[in-house]
Amino acid sequence: MIPTIRIQDIADILIMTFLLYQLYSWFRDTRAIQVLLGLGVVTLIYFATRFLNLYMTSWVLQELGTVLIILIIVVFQTEIRQALYRFSLLRHLLDSRQETQHSQFQDIAETLFRMAAKKTGALIVFQGNESLHDLMTNGVVINSEISPQMLESIFYDGAPFHDGAALINNGRIEKAACHLPLSVSPDIPQHLGTRHRAALGLSERSDAVIIVISEERGEVSLATAGSFHPMNSPTELIMALDKLLRSETESPRITVRQRYFSNLLPKTVLLLGVCIFWVLITTRQGDITTVTAPVRLHGVPDNLVLMRIAPEDVTVQIKAMSSLAPPPSKLDLTADIDASKISDGTTALRISHDDIAIPSGMTITSISPSSVRVSAEKKLRKSVPVKVTLKGRLPYGQSSLHITCEPNTVDIEGPASQVSQIASVATEDIEASQLKRGKEYLKNLRAPDKQVSVLRDTPVIIRLSARGKRQR
Q1: DSSP state of 162
Q2: Could you say which DSSP state residue 427 is in?
Q3: Does residue 97 sit within a domain?
Q4: What is the per-residue pLDDT across 177-196, written as a single tens digit (0 to 9) for each?
Q5: 2 assigned to some structural domain
Q6: pLDDT higher for 267 or 297?
Q7: Whole-model pTM?
């Protein structure tokens, strides 16, 4: 059966395609993309096994999925934080990054190439739109203006900060001696050292621009978006920095056609995958399931006692909108009805769809009957004496003794019609032949009626004593 396509379904497909494409755009140059692709394949296999009724395989994949999600969150927590930051609609309002001036680029480029000529190693990070707080660690705050003297002193061989990276943000040197995450890409040439791996690692995880000076070869390289670009002159470096770090107001305007028709291959593949996924999860759309749900009441007034609910169960018909919906055997539904407006006597309560919580992917088509009748009675509390229930007779010679209990009265509570007819509350049976003078015996009280409660949780104390010590 081909499911009916609604406007909501089209919106559902387009939104999911957009989200998946954003994930692809953010992670395509990182190691996380391989894990995401693997998860996509496993997900398709899982739905295929459920569709083909391969119970064991689908069960194993379902149980394994929970563990994989936890592992991914732990292993790729940095990438996930960066992705959430990129998705934030407020980050452009909260960012205070100012435009880096062309003259600053010129000073930086000329200084770096002088350092390269002396084979002085350096690692400089230009922060982009994304925060680097979680990626750069152990830095020392400098908050200094950019000057050739400051850059040369930071990376001077033997200086305390020369082994780490310097962070430039908002046109100032914000930190020095920062540690960067190393890239684990197997494609990095063996002759590149730790500085280059650190620069590439940060560029894979953010939109930062990183400049590296090789201490061995005196080469200047620029790392961005997970790749290196050799810089042969200060002019070339100035042009690259000006292009990558200029403010968004100066960036070329992207037309609607370019926005929607660029990268057509990944967009088409993702759209096709989402459509297939949608068909798989809607294969059961339209299936009707009948379930019996017990009636439960909440909010009963404190001055009333429920006497009867008719009927005690209702029949609910549920329409499955997705194959993700649980089978009828696993449905455990309850009609939880608000009884705060009932009164003494019989009240009819209507059952609405909101009174029954159903799993996602299902809708309620009918409830039969549509209402229940609730009988309630006013609650009454009173104090009655305790009656000791003897089994047999007292031993010879003790018949003149008297049986007492402590306490000799208890409170009971329940429907007024029943409580008003109760004259006493009896204890559990006690063998009269076993009673001895001076000893104490503990016995529980019997509830006089199903609807009546004895307001005492502990047993009463029973004694055999002389009549002159009878408790009153």
Answers
A1: T
A2: B
A3: no
A4: 899 888 877 778 877 888 88
A5: no
A6: 297
A7: 0.43
